[in-house]
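hey m, so remember when u said the tokens were messed up on ur end? i reran from scratch. heres the input so u can diff it against urs
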Amino acid sequence: MMLFEKKLPVISYTDFTEKARSVTSYTSSSGKRYKVMGFEGDVMLICRLDASSNMNWEIPLWKVYEAYVQLDDFSTKSFKQYLPRRQSPSRGLLLHLQLLS
């Protein structure tokens, strides 16, 4: 089982969204590849590249940030309460932004 830890200090929501908006693609902790298709307000629109149907997902950035700030355990079980069915791409975003190690 992979363990993920929050890097300190915790950044502000403004800094988080600014960093997230600069991302064009990333890989989740389980190796799935995602392309950022754009944003609708503070919702990141992503497409999973290595799925047979090119699955599209909406990732509410405020929920990713809430999990980032409140969690100490970034396991699937803990993360799922914030972003059900989106925990892997959301955790992958935090890893890509170097907010988790």
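this time it looks ok to me. The chain has one domain: 13-96. if urs says something different then somethings off w ur setup not the seq
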